[in-house]
Amino acid sequence: MKITLTISFALLFVCSVFAQNKTQYPDIPRIDVHTHVANNYGGIEKYLELRNLLLKEYSADLSMWINLGGGKNPIRNLDSINLVSENRMLCAFSDFDPFHGLKYKPEDLINKREQGFIGFKIWYGPWYRKLKDGEKGFPYVDDPANEPMFAEMEELGVLAASLHIADPNGPFGNRTPWCADPVEYWREITGFYNVLKKHPDLKVVAAHSSWLICQDAQIDYLRFLLATFPNLSIDLAATFQYFDLVSYDNLRDFMIEYSDRILFGTDAGTWNTKEETQKRAAAYNRCFRILETDETIEGSFFGDKPIKGLNLPREVLEKIYYKNAVRIYPKVGERMSELGY
Fold first, then answer.
1. How far apart, in whole angstroms, are the C-alpha atoms of residue 220 and residue 10?
2. CATH 3.20.20.140, domain 2-338, yes or no
3. Continuous H helices in 243-339
4. Is the four-CA dihedral 134, 136, 140, 141 of positive or negative sign?
5. Structure-model confidence comparison of residues 307 and 17, the more confident one
6. Residue 172 in contact with residue 199, Cβ under 8 Å?
7. What three-state secondary structure class fits 297?
8. Residue 70 pLDDT
9. What is the mean pLDDT of the chain?
10. Where do the H-state alpha helices sit in 22-89?
11. CB 292 within 8 A of CB 24
12. Could you give the CA distance from residue 338 to residue 90 in angstroms, rounded to a whole number?
């Protein structure tokens, strides 16, 4: 009898732990607006395996993802990408080295849109990661050389999907290695502000929340930007690992207050093995649990620091997971309907 009870309790414990790993919201689709699959067809197939694994192990529906490019080969044949991805992936065209001058011209925009691209990804991180010492270039996004492009994007309604500005700058004593100099960080953010002010009708999704999420004062500045520029939205890609650097209540209040301007993203790249697929699925699930529960989660998508879950309301999660993407990104709503959502 004692052995039977012990086994029963053990089984209940295992089932309870497994149930805790599953999402509370299996009926809410999720769209990852920030991935880097590039032109990798094997990588696309891995995302489909990841989708199936998330459904099986966590009851979480990764319905679509947006490919922001990367790698050496630019995305060309969107028809084949649609076929391989089972119509679950949309693509932006990209420039990861605008410091030497944008490789696309304003006259390219209409053609890119007609090809099926949903926006333009521009990477403006710290200039010293791309320019050599003493090398002349275009270190900040508000350089006059970029004006014709932003003006044409604004005129045509081409989405900046996404615009990467700066890299993480944490609080004093924990600046983070990516952009440790706060003066340089704010120069990059100021350049971003100048672009938004000059082009108020430019539609922008700021990658990584423009990294304005690693200090409480940064979150307040993000409030200012979102309140001032109604065409600005942000994604959460790679930000979860820094949530411990800010006030829990401030972050949760911000997520709820501006829930119609926030999109789910991870910054996931490509991988090759089934073991890595398992790890990616677990990483996605940790991010879901940070948003959905009040548990302390050991790690996020990147990093292994414990993060207290935000326990966001269902209506907020729906906006962040998919409703905002349907509203902001071209073709997403159409694809979701075709997929049966």
1. 47
2. yes
3. 248-257, 274-292, 314-318, 324-328, 332-338
4. negative
5. 307
6. no
7. strand
8. 86
9. 93
10. 41-58, 78-84
11. yes
12. 14
